[in-house]
Amino acid sequence: MLVTEFSTNIVAAPERFALWEDATERSHMRNRLHSNDRNDFRAEMRGLDLAEVQVAALAYSHLEVVRTPRLIRQSDPEVYQINYFLGGQGIVSAGKYDTTVRTGDLMVMDSSRPYRGDVHADPGRWSHMTVQCPRGLLPLPAKTIRRLFAVPISGRSGMGGMFARWLCDLNARADEFTPDDVPTLASVTVDLLGSVMARCLEAEETLSPEARRTALRARVVAFVERHLADPDLTPGAVADAHHISRRLLQQLLAEDGTSPAAWIRHRRLEHCRLDLAAPGLNALPMRAIAARWGFTDPKHFSRLFHATYGMPPRDYRDRSRQACANRHQLCAN
């Protein structure tokens, strides 16, 4: 049987989430699941068995999926899983930091690498589709594909759009296929997927070295700004998140006459300085301001601030308040 239909509605409400856990472990892989609706988890799944390639459409309202190192050690099918998000949005992590996914995004995951996904889906429709295939079926080197892990790929246009439409057609026409169609359907699915990945990688390679360097630096800058609140944000973490060496990261920032560590520290201090001068944050303790930008030691923060701006953070805040009052500004904003 090529098509498998499944719904949690076949059991009583308290049993539905456990049934879903069991069904997805058999159809996909073993993960740790959580949902805000676990007391009455309403979900559906439609699977299309193409031998080594498995295609499925899933519908639910909210689902958090976590694949841990322990689960990987216990059981690893060694497959790539490609997710196509049909409605809603969520957060996906395949390492330390998060990536936002939205309707129309494709994303590549690997059963051998830990990840976490937290998706709030639109009700009344399929939430997302998955394709699972053995890593060896794709013609691209694993090291190359790794650059695409947990990176949103547009399924709205180009090769990504073609692959997304193919998946939707597979789901819509699943009942029309026969076992004789399986080799062709599987081959086309893998070929399209390989083309999407290759096109993403080619787009990067067609840039001039200078343009690639500029684009990489822009990604690094945006990444650091998004994660300044994380006390564990270090040059090593930034380099690892972008699959580059620490030496290359150093070179990217050397043009500005700074080092990665100094640059991260400076950006944190600048945000703290702006918060200390903001009238709307007057009631927020200084240690809280320091913590919200990644400084866990208030004394260390105070010393750094004094060394950078020539006065302790408390004096800077007092001076900013006085300057605001002297100018008779409206300080409620």
From TrEMBL:
Keyword terms of this UniProt record: DNA-binding, Transcription, Transcription regulation
SMART domains: HTH_ARAC (SM00342)
Residue ranges of coiled coil: none
HTH araC/xylS-type domain ranges (all copies): 218-319
InterPro entries: AraC-bd_2, AraC_XylS_family_regulators, Homeodomain-like_sf, HTH-like, HTH_AraC
Entries under PROSITE patterns matching the protein: HTH_ARAC_FAMILY_2
Pfam families the record matches: AraC_binding_2, HTH_18
Protein name as catalogued: AraC family transcriptional regulator
Lineage: Bacteria, Bacillati, Actinomycetota, Actinomycetes, Kitasatosporales
